[in-house]
Amino acid sequence: MSTNTQIALRLPHAPDPTTVELLYRTFGDVLIPLEKLRVQYFRNLNEETFADHLKDGRISLPTFTLGSSQKDLKYAHIRHVAALIDNRAYLADEKQSSPAAKQ
């Protein structure tokens, strides 16, 4: 009998493998430091605003540290970032193809 205590990854959908691969080529690791992510994709947000957007859910991205200190570097997992990008692209596609957008 297996006692699996690992929490299941709850992504809205599996990210496109191509998105994950391109992110890996960009960042070179499966753990992406939040500051690098902010500089690459959220240039319009300063550090404080970016942190606020993450905290209040306007940017829906799970973040974590590898240590227990609040001063430890914060990361996002590459699959979560890929799922966020793919989801935003899907929503943009849906919006573009909706009948209201064509009027």
**Strand count, sense and closure of the main sheet?**
3 strands, antiparallel
User: What order do the SSEs take from the amino end to the carboxyl end, as H and E?
Assistant: HEHHEEHH
Helical proportion?
A: 40-55%
Shape: globular
Please give the count of helices.
5
Low-confidence segments = none
Structural class: mainly alpha
Number of strands: 3
Beta-strand fraction estimate? 5-15%
Tell me the Rg in angstroms.
16 Å
How far is the N terminus from the C terminus? 59 Å
Overall pLDDT level:
88
Strand order of the largest sheet: 1-3-2
Structure description:
The chain has 103 residues and is mainly alpha-helical. It contains five helices and three strands; from the N terminus they run αβααββαα. Helix content is 51%, strand content 9%. The chain has a three-stranded antiparallel β-sheet. Helix 1 crosses helix 4.
Nutshell version of this structure?
With about 100 residues, the chain is mainly α.
Chain-wise SSE layout:
Elements: H1 17-27, E1 31-33, H2 34-41, H3 47-56, E2 64-65, E3 74-77, H4 78-97, H5 99-102
Antiparallel strand pairs: 1-3, 2-3
Helix pairs in contact: 1-4
Key descriptive features of the protein:
103 residues; 5 helices; 9% strand; three-stranded antiparallel beta sheet; 51% helix; mainly alpha
